[in-house]
Write a structure and sequence with these properties.
By secondary structure, the chain is mainly alpha-helical. It is built from 7 helices and 2 strands. A two-stranded parallel sheet has the order 1-2.
Length: about 170
């Protein structure tokens, strides 16, 4: 919070001085767009999908087994009341186990994505800094902006550099 207040104060001071304004170059980068459109993020999602595919398949098999048992219960042919009750209890237990396994898997996926996203954010910030240095910018703003002129938006340039990084790796 203190960082934002300092940044706001800095912008106000810079913009209040016409002489300083002539010497300061400012740019904007849309970090949300970078996190959505950067090829590294698609690669991260695919890597996580692959990493957790075996658990996803086990969950699908559990769900199929529950569905089969529910169909058996619905038919109810040849089952005594006691067998129907045991089957109902088995289905309930399996549903609960499925729910816990699904929730745990989603939490694990989210944790892994957050870890990878954090690593990518560091790379993204380095690329933003490189673009800022190449363009001799004094200030790059990434959030808390109401309107941005396309003239100072460097998001596409950053995306292009991130794409080039991916192309170099492959």
């Amino acid at each position: 919070m203190l960082h934002r207040k300092f940044l706001a104060l800095l912008v106000v001071l810079v913009l209040s001085s016409p002489a300083a304004l002539a010497e300061v170059s400012v740019a904007y980068v849309n970090a949300t767009r970078l996190l959505q459109d950067a090829p590294q993020v698609a690669q991260i999602k695919e890597r996580i999908r692959t990493e957790f595919s075996a658990r996803d398949q086990r969950l699908a098999a559990m769900q199929k087994q529950i569905r089969l048992l529910e169909e058996q219960l619905a038919r109810g042919t040849g089952l005594t009341a006691e067998q129907q009750q045991r089957l109902q209890n088995d289905i309930s237990a399996r549903k609960l186990k499925f729910k816990h396994a699904r929730d745990e898997l989603e939490q694990d996926k989210q944790l892994r994505f957050s870890e990878e996203e954090e690593r990518f954010s560091r790379i993204m910030h380095e690329v933003i800094a490189q673009v800022a240095q190449d363009r001799k910018l004094d200030l790059v703003i990434q959030s808390g902006v109401i309107w941005v002129s396309p003239r100072i938006d460097i998001t596409q340039t950053v995306l292009e550099r991130l794409q080039a990084m991916m192309d170099e790796k492959n």
